[in-house]
Amino acid sequence: MQDDIVIRVVAKVMIPAVMLFALYVQFHGDYGPGGGFQAGVIFASAFVLNAVVFGLNKGRHVWPARYNLMGICGGVLLYGFTGVAGMVLGKNFLNFNVLSSDPVAGQHLGILLVEFGVGLTVAAVMVMLFFTFAGRTAHLRLLSKSDAHERKVSASKTAKKVKK
Amino acid sequence: MAKSKNPKSKLTPALGLRLLAAVAGLLVLAEILVHRHAYFALEAMPLFFAGFGFLAFLAIILGSRLVAKLATRPVDYYDTPEGDA
Amino acid sequence: MLEMLLSIPGLLLIVGALLVPVLPHAPRQAYMLALIGVSGYLTFGIETGVHTTASLGGLDLILVRAEAMTKPFALVFHIAAALNVFYALHDPNKTTSAAGLAYAGAAIAALFAGDFLTLFLYWELTAITSVFLVLAGTSARTMNAAMRYLLMQVGSGVVLLAGAGLLWRDGTGLTIQAVDALTPAGLCLLLAFGIKAAFPLVNGWLQDAYPEASVTGTVMLSAFTTKLAIYMLALCFAGFTPLIYIGAVMAVLPVFFAAVENDLRRVLAYSLNNQLGFMVIGIGVGTQLALNGTVAHAFASTIYQGLLFMALGAVLHRTGTAKASQLGALAKSMPLTAIFCTVGALSIISFPLFSGFVTKSLTLGAVAKEGYFFVWLAMVFVTVGAVQHIFVKAVYLPFFGPAPKRVKAKEAPLGMLLAMGAAAALCLGIGVYPEPLYALLPYDARYEVWKAGYVLGELQLLFFAGLGFVFLSLRGVYPTAMDTTVLNTDYLFRRTLPRATMAIAGPVLRVWFVVLAALKRSVLQMLKISEQASRESGLVSGIASIGSAAGIFLAMFALMLILRQVM
Amino acid sequence: MMQHLPVLQVLLPLLAAPFAALLRGRDLAWGVAFITTGAAFLISIALFLEQRALGTTLVYEMGNWAAPIGIVYVIDAASALVLPVISGIGFVATLAARQLVAAEIDARDHALFYAAWLLTIAGMLGQVTTGDAFNIFVFLEISSLSAYALVAMGSGRDRRALPAAFNYLILGTVGATFYVIGLGLLYMLTGTLNLVDLAERLPQVEETRAAFTAMAFIALGLFLKMALFPLHFWLVPAYAHAPSAVTALMASTATKVSVYVLIRLIFGVFGVEFPGLADAVGLLVLTLGIAGAFVGTLAAIVETDLKKLFAQSSIAQLGYMAIGIGAMSATGLAAAFLHLFNHALMKGALFLAIGMIAAQAGRATMGTIQGAGKQIPITMTAILFGGLALIGVPLTAGFISKLYLIRALLEQDFWLLAGLTFLSSALALAYVWKIIEAAWLQPRPKGAPKLHETASQYIPAWIMVIATLGFGIYATPLVQAAFAAAHVFIPSVAGAN
Q: Kind of pairing, strands D58-61 and C485-486?
């Protein structure tokens, strides 16, 4: 799959665009369709495409395994602490009005931060899921190779017998 | 008041016996001199108490014979466990 | 707390007894004597009437109440307690001295109880503390005897409680006063006191347990329980005529048993039984003179019976046996004990100049005055009996008679001698100068004892009884003591009762075992079924596949909807 | 700070979880878990005291949005009673988890384990505090999913943990889905998800078939999460093959939270007068409850693996809670709350003690504890006390809850049921005696490995035992709290408590 030049060139062009679009969807959630979940998935699809096109190790290189856990936890903590910020500033948990002088601006800021947290977590989860399952194919292939080898060996043995 | 009397075989020393007879006689004599205020007719009878004392003693020994025959058991009777309460 | 301790008589001794085991030997005796002294002084000061009351859950209890009759009993109990301390000077056993003191305290406190509930408390306390005295006995049979003793004593307590309950239910209140014996409550109380006063058919425990107790234990036991019962009978059932005939039977029967019995301490237990018979006759007659007689007799009997028990206890302590068949010629080696024992014997056969004479004559006179001829005759007969089983059998033969085999014995220890001496002095003192005792008696009725005719009659009776003995032994007919077990009314509880219950229980038990076996089989069957059901693959709790679990789930859902329609 | 307690109760473990996940160091994750559960326990006690002092319900509006629109956290007498149980058990289990997890799960997964551990506790606490129906579902999912993960983590030592976890996952999700379907129906009928608001709007639509179906969905979903008799198949393998620490936590809290949610919805939202509730559901719950009690006890009698044995007995005990609910009366509810509280203590004690044995000996079966009475007396005595409490021996907490349960039944004249309850708890004596006999009366088999116990091993179990005995001997405050909780749902008729 890696050596098909057309795919490689198109992928190279597409991946940055996909990421950019993901960010647009992320921050556009307030006014139109979008928001953390959708943006996260799109963001993750960029990495999946990369890994599919350029191979797992390159993919793993771009998005190392430890990013997964950090992404997930980071997202949740971001969401949580935006809420806690509301508490620190005197109001109840998840109260965004107090985040800036004007309550409406506060709401916007709050939503943006929270949605970004969600996006981060979802992206990390999706990439982790992909690599968990994709990683296994390598493992499976190894298995299949060893089966093929055995078949070859047994086939040669029967062939020898037939020759005798 | 010690009365040296050993039962069964030989008689008590003569002195002891004679002493006994003297006291008995004295008590019987005293009966005549003394007037006793009696509640019951029988009690008023002279020498009632003397006779009754003697006969009662014999009756008790007879009675004890009866009890000995009926109500005695070997010494370890209750020691043998027969649902001893 | 201290004020309460001092105001309730006897409580000082009970609480004080707790400290007894802690003290070493010598100071312990002094401490006990001091306690008895203080308690005696306090109780003696209490005038008649109600003193302290308390209320417990709506019931008002009279803790301290003195009757006319209470003072002599309290005094004699204190004297007995003191004598017991002296008597047990040689005995290192801490539990018996503590139990003995508590026992005396409980008995004294019971005297002053004003209502049946407080009485019940002390009644049980006397039972429990006295069991330790029996348990202190050394013979193999002690444990069983103690248990039988405890059963009877606690049984009496339970019956007392039942009586009190019935009284409370009838609304007659719990205060101790004359009770009509023919009501159910009255019967219960009569039985309760009767058990402890060794009425016929329930006297077995007295002859069974007392001789099994330790040397000092028996002496302590002989003083309190029975006299307390007599005191209660006198309070509640004075003048109840059937008591006269119960008393007569109680007096006469033991005479024959005592004649046959070989263990001299058991002989004394029988004689204690017939002394109680005398007192019960006095209560039955119920006149002031009779009651005076009973109280006086109880007073004197506690002392001379105690003395006799002490003397034979000393003999047992020194020679190791109290069997008439093994004792003889002890006077030479135990002269003082012999003398004190003789004084006791002379008192019990009411020989003039001794305490028995001045006290029993009151009862005798009262009975004669009321014209109960046969009862009077029985009482005289019993006096002759006393001559036989006490004077001859328990005193003359062991101390002065021939010794079947060489019995080596030393004189009793000092403590015992002191106690016996004091008791003997008391017997003689009361006999010679009875006025202080008469002053203590509840009523003023008097009976002129020192009339020549009466004294002569008494002397003739005793002397010719003695002659009877001489006559029989001369003819060689006088029975020698054999070592046998004499059956007594406790036979009823130890053989007849168990055999009867087994007769009834036997078939019932057999049926029960059959039922039980069937039950067991069915339970095992059920368990086996449930085991199959619960095994791994079993229907009920095996790891069912998800499909079946979901199936059940949906079935439940459907069931709920159907239920909704149906209901 | 005080007014934020209701949200902190849930927020603390929720936010601590990601932290714990990130901490790879030795015991760091456990440290976070320990501090968080400790704080949560203190908070729940503070909430309990504050609620009792005020007497009314504490309401905490998320983001200051008012009730029907905004999500509110409600602390009333009922939740104030259940919160300390969950956080208390969580704290003590975390205390014991250090030893148990170190023995049963390899070091690499510790951080993730404690993350899931904190999440499941946060989920349970959330279910109890939240006042919004859908929010309950969210927390239900949070606690269940992390529970599935925790159970699956047992596979390191016992491969059968995987199928058990998978079973648990599927059935748990089926239950949760039924719950959310029911919720959807309710939302369609009433247009609101706030519990109080729902309760007010429901009477108008009570008669419709949809309302009853919604109630049926919700009730059934929770029956499964609560492991009521026929729907209990997931529980025994899940508890038996999960890591010992997880069994200790789950057995004492997971099903109890579902019981609380069931009470909160059935009595709080639908109310006792809801048509068809008393007779249809009530009757069903009673029969399933008593059936569960017998099945659980009989299965426990024949069981040899200790974890399975006490898991079976959990089904029986849950049967008793169901009976309490089925009685549909204030005393019945109070009995259910009492048993919810006491059972958590008893099971906590038992599984913590058994966990210690399993950690040492691999599997805690009748064989491993044969003659162990002399080698590890203190741990075995903890199990003994737990067993006695299960039977309902006086002076233990078990007795108090059985007492009020039977009283509730007698008040409703369910004479047969009271008898059966009594019989089944007496039957429990069989499996407790089986353990006592194995531990003390039989000699230790020759080759058996030597068991040993250290203070840090048996202290958590003994904390629970002391709590069981404490609440058994001096039970009045607990009983009053239980009745206060019951009266939140069934207002007390004057006189009848």
A: unpaired
Q: B13: which residues sit within 8 A by CB, 6+ positions away? A: B4
CB-based burial, C88-112: b 16+ in 10 Å, e otherwise? bbebebeebbbbbbbbbbbbbbbbb
Integer CA distances (angstroms), A136 to A42, A130, D55, in order: 23, 10, 58
Roughly what angle, to the nearest 10 degrees, separates helices A65-88 and A103-163? 160
Residue D379 vs residues C361, D239, D313, D454, D466: alpha-carbon distances, Å? 78, 20, 19, 9, 13
User: d(Cα A154, Cα D488) in Å, to the nearest integer?
Assistant: 76
Q: What does pLDDT average to in each consecutive run of 10 residues of chain C (567 residues)?
A: 79 88 87 91 84 78 86 93 91 88 93 90 91 83 86 91 88 84 90 93 89 89 92 91 92 91 91 93 92 93 94 90 85 89 92 90 90 90 92 88 78 90 93 89 85 86 88 83 83 84 87 91 83 63 69 87 81
Contact D22 A69 (CB under 8 A): yes
Among C44, C41, C34, C64, smallest CA distance to C52 is for C64
Q: What is the DSSP string of D418-441?
A: HHHHHHHHHHHHHHHHHHHIIIII
Name which of D374, D386, D402, D391 is nearest D463 in CA terms: D386
Do the chains contact at B84 and C144, CB–CB below 8 Å? Answer: yes
- Identity of the residue in C381, C470, C483 whose CB atom sits nearest the CB atom of B56: C381
| pLDDT at site C544 | 59
Q: What is the 3-state secondary structure (H, E, C) of C335-391?
A: HHHHHHHHHHHHHHCCCCCCHHHHHHHHHHHHHHHHCCHHHHHHHHHHHHHHHHHHH
Q: Do C460 and B49 touch (CB under 8 A)?
A: yes
Q: Report whether D97 contacts D33 (CB < 8 A).
A: yes
Sorting pLDDT into bands at 50, 70 and 90, what band is A15?
very high
| Min Cα–Cα distance to chain A from D147, Å | 19
pLDDT of residue A35: 84
| Cα D153 from chain centre | 21
Other CB atoms within a 10 A radius of the CB of residue D419 amount to 12
Enclosing domain of residue A116: 5-163
How do residues D173-194 score in pLDDT, each as one tens digit? 999 999 999 999 999 999 999 9
CA C269 to CA C274: how far, in whole Å? 9
Q: In chain B, count of helices (H) and strands (E)?
A: 3, 1
Domains of chain C: which residue ranges?
238-483, 489-532
From chain D residues 10-39, the ones with a CB under 8 A of any chain A CB are 11, 14-15, 17-19, 21-22
| Coil, helix or strand at residue C265 | helix
Neighbours of D471 (CB within 10 A): 22
State the Cα–Cα distance between residues A21 and A40, nearest whole angstrom.
Answer: 11
The SS3 call for residue C56 is strand
| Interface ipTM | 0.68
Q: Which amino acid is at B2?
A: A
Q: What pLDDT does residue D494 have?
A: 52
Q: How many residues does chain D have?
A: 497
> CB–CB of D77/D488 below 8 Å?
yes
* Domain map (residue ranges) of chain B: 14-71
Query: D40-71: b or e for each residue (b if 16 or more CB lie within 10 Å)?
Result: bbebbeebbebbeeeeebbebbbbeeebbebb
- Number of domains forming the structure of chain A: 1
Tell me which amino acid residue A141 is. Answer: R
Helices C373-386 and C452-474: crossing angle in degrees, nearest 10, is 50
Q: Do chains C and A have 3 or more beta-carbon pairs under 8 angstroms?
A: no
DSSP one-letter string for C472-499:
HHHTT-SPPP---EEP-THHIIIIIHHH
Residue D58 β-bridge partners = D75
Q: List pLDDT tens digits, range A138-151.
A: 666 776 777 777 77
